Predict the structure.
Amino acid sequence: MSGVQDQLEIKFRLTDGSDIGPKSFSAATSVATLKENVLAQWPKEKENGPKTVKDVKLISAGKILENNRTIGECRSPLCDIPGGVTTMHVVVQPPSSDKEKKVASQPKQNKCVCVIL
């Protein structure tokens, strides 16, 4: 019976309200592996999809999941329903480009105009 409890049914809710899954995962599966799965199953017809795993953030029970943790460590007892499906929200946040970083790192210059009459 413990082997069944170590499996979690997870579906991934995309920002447009559509879902990927549900699919069964072991409780020992890392969050990084879940992100790779989302990346591989991302619908090709959807615009602004993630390019890399770094572009994907998974949210479960109101918490952003860290790549180095397992889903067994991250799951909330409040969300565990025997035989139920856990929904994780997917946020796509591509890293900012180098141009944006350069602009952000430049100090803002205040322009002051003085007129002496």
About this structure: DSSP finds four helices and five strands in the chain.
